[in-house]
């Protein structure tokens, strides 16, 4: 394993994030807690729903991590649909990104595209 990299239970390598704006949902209960924090803190947030077996998810994930450092006012969350099956059963495509402002979901994006993701993050930060 590279220095500065952690492996999540899903098998996706998570870069250690010194600013702490990127968290990983490790279970349904954990994701429910994260939803509660998003609703009560009213901090802008983005949730990346992905899967370890999804090639496109693996391709966009490093950019998602890098962008978490460029947008420190946003909370970044990664949720693997296999680790959180109850709370992610509404997700039909991976990756799916949900954007939250003032505790409410205000936008979503399907699929990858680093530039598209950057633009959405800029819009919601």
UniProtKB/TrEMBL annotation:
Residues 11-125 form the Thioredoxin domain. Residues 1-20 are annotated as: Disordered. InterPro entries: Thioredoxin-like_sf (IPR036249), Thioredoxin_domain (IPR013766), TRL33 (IPR044193). CDD domains: TRX_family. It holds the Pfam family Thioredoxin. This is Thioredoxin-like 3-3. PANTHER family: THIOREDOXIN-LIKE 3-3.
